[in-house]
Design a protein that fits this description.
Blueprint lengths: L3 H16 L1 H11 L4 H12 L4 H12 L4 H8 L3 H17 L1
Helix pairs in contact: 1-3, 4-6, 5-6
Length: 96
């Protein structure tokens, strides 16, 4: 079972992957995909089972590389609410 800290670290890695996806795609032709890509694919598969707001939050924060503040402005919610949703997202991944 994963802890919240592990999920937090892995989501940070996923954000880094998507923020630099062009670089990863370019070098994958030379040296292949990083083994961490399996983790990205696993999270992407699992998040499909999440409630729609958590799914959307995952996309906005980790795939689109937005900050919680940016998401709060785009969605019309407080930053505190987005932080609560992000905690729920962590909990969802821990349970799955």
């Amino acid at each position: 079972m994963k802890t919240i800290n592990i999920v937090r670290e892995e989501l940070s890695d996923i954000r880094h992957y998507y923020a630099n996806i062009k670089d990863f795609e370019r070098v994958s032709k030379e040296i292949g995909n990083p083994t961490a890509l399996e983790m990205v694919e696993t999270y992407n598969r699992v998040v499909k089972k999440a409630p729609i707001k958590l799914f959307n939050l995952y996309v906005c924060l980790y795939i689109d590389n937005n900050s919680q503040e940016t998401v709060s402005i785009d969605w019309g919610y407080s930053v505190g609410y987005i932080k609560k949703l992000n905690k729920k997202l962590y909990d969802f991944f821990v349970e799955e």
